[in-house]
Design a protein that fits this description.
- The chain has two domains: 179 residues, Glutaconate Coenzyme A-transferase (3-Layer(aba) Sandwich), CATH 3.40.1080; 248 residues, Glutaconate Coenzyme A-transferase.
- The protein contains 16 helices and 26 strands.
- The strands form seven sheets. Strands 15-13-11-10-16-21-25-26 form an eight-stranded mixed beta sheet, with helices on both faces. The chain has a seven-stranded parallel beta sheet with strand order 4-3-2-1-5-7-9, with helices on both faces. Strands 18-17-24 form a three-stranded mixed beta sheet, with no helix packed on it.
- Strand 3, helix 5 and strand 4 form a beta-alpha-beta unit.
- The chain is globular.
């Protein structure tokens, strides 16, 4: 087959392509840095022609023009599986809605028809000689979305790195209905997340728990960056990677010789991930790099697949922890901040892994909007807050004051362990609250 001829048959302008969107349709915008701003801008121009178009995305890094053009939501309703900073700001204005999920299950949500897709917007690399377009830095749900979409529109962008698999890292031209050649704007980059002295204290505590041959998962934020930086400067050997998110610190660890994957039980010598977000350093590193393997999220985040590697070390953040050991990693009260993401997947997977350890890390305090210091270890999760990790699932909680094991602990043992790693200024208050909650034994009172 002459794929170039088929390419030309399917090649249209963005304005022509988005004409397939009808009122009442569900349009999927893609994932993370692979969401197409180019196609969004074309759809925004059709605002007055459309009503009740449901837009779904995953951590879109920009505020879509279609949403900004319709502040009264008369034409578009915008939904995100996991909030980015852009989605959070739109949510605060009542312009973005959150979609709760277990990340490893999300391809099945599409496959089972829970989430219909009329039109899929995706961003891809140029076509290769075999008629395939690489999906770039994100494939967690994209293959499942394209499988069920009535129409798939691909924006070809020469700035997208070719990320090797893995599995289902590419889409064939026969599965694409319309091709649009974009303006080749570079992938958006995450701003550098500086880490504090407190972050470094926590990182040092976690670093002590990592052994040679461990298999790493790092979440987003300052804390994982601090740990990655310390690992790069350590003398740890033969570390592996099986993670949902690949960030710049993995490049640093790889270039420092810490990551070889030699001791992994599956995907030996491969850095396994389902999406990447970072700087151009990361995107350049990923381009045609056989050391990296991109997979859908029902592989990377399946707890049973995670557990097939030994010594899985999962490192994630939280906004707050209550005295029962419940972790909220995604909201401040009713204000949605991010999402559950893969935290629960990896806590479960790390515990099933032989020699595995799962850490939820947070600084003991935060300065609130009033400029007042408050504890992030609380008697109960702030009312309206989401429990991202069930108290029975959580493994270790870490602050700058130490580590608290949650597994196998009674409610009073959990309370005591968590109060031990709370900021000293808040411990007496937490003890009083624990007593009211009937989860404190006075003989164990902390001095």
């Amino acid at each position: 087959m002459d794929y170039k001829e088929e390419y030309q048959r399917k090649l249209v302008t963005a304005d022509e392509a988005v004409k397939v969107v009808k009122s009442g349709d569900t349009v999927n915008y893609g994932e993370f840095m692979m969401a197409s701003a180019f196609l969004d801008e074309a759809l925004a121009k059709r605002k007055d022609e459309l009503t009740n178009v449901n837009i779904i995305t995953t951590t879109c890094p920009f505020q879509p023009q279609a949403v900004l053009a319709d502040p009264n939501k008369e034409h578009f309703i915008y939904n995100d599986w996991h909030f980015s900073a852009a989605s959070r700001k739109l949510h605060d204005q009542g312009l973005c809605y959150f979609m709760p999920m277990l990340y490893h299950e999300t391809p099945a949500y599409y496959e089972r028809g829970h989430v219909p897709v009329d039109v899929a917007f995706i961003k891809v690399t140029p076509m290769d000689k075999h008629g395939y377009f690489n999906l770039g830095t994100s494939s967690s749900m994209t293959p499942a979305i394209c499988d069920v979409a009535r129409i798939t529109i691909a924006e070809v962008n020469t700035s997208v790195p070719k990320c090797l698999g893995g599995s289902r890292e590419s889409l064939h031209i026969s599965d694409i209905d319309y091709i649009v050649e974009g303006d080749n704007r570079p992938l958006l980059e995450l701003p550098e997340t500086p880490f504090s002295e407190t972050d470094q204290k926590i990182a040092r505590l976690v670093l002590k728990e990592i052994e040679d041959g461990a298999c790493l998962q790092l979440g987003i934020g300052a804390m994982p960056n601090a740990i990655g930086s310390m690992i790069a400067q350590s003398d740890l050997k033969d570390l592996g990677v099986h993670t949902e998110m690949l960030v710049d610190s993995f490049v640093d660890m790889y270039e420092a010789g810490r990551l070889t994957g030699r001791r992994k039980q599956i995907d030996k010598r491969k850095m396994v991930y389902t999406f990447a977000m970072g700087s151009s350093k990361l995107y350049d590193f990923l381009d045609e790099n056989p050391a990296c393997a991109l997979y859908p999220v029902d592989y990377t985040n399946d707890p049973y697949i995670i557990a097939r590697n030994n010594k899985v070390v999962a490192i994630n953040n939280a906004i707050e922890i209550d005295l029962y050991g419940q972790a909220c990693a995604e909201s401040a009260g009713t204000r949605q901040i991010s999402g559950t993401g893969g935290q629960l997947d990896y806590i479960l997977g790390s515990y099933k892994s032989e020699g595995g350890k799962g850490f939820v890390c947070l600084t003991s305090t935060v300065v609130n909007k009033s400029g007042k210091l408050e504890s992030r270890i609380k008697p109960i999760i702030t009312p309206g807050g989401a429990v991202s990790s069930h108290r029975a699932a959580n493994f270790y909680v870490v602050t700058e004051y130490g580590k608290a094991l949650m597994k196998g602990q009674t409610t009073w043992q959990r309370a005591e362990a968590l109060i031990n790693i709370a900021h000293p200024d808040f411990r007496e208050e937490l003890i009083k609250e624990a007593e009211k909650m009937k989860i404190w034994i006075r003989s164990n009172k902390i001095s």
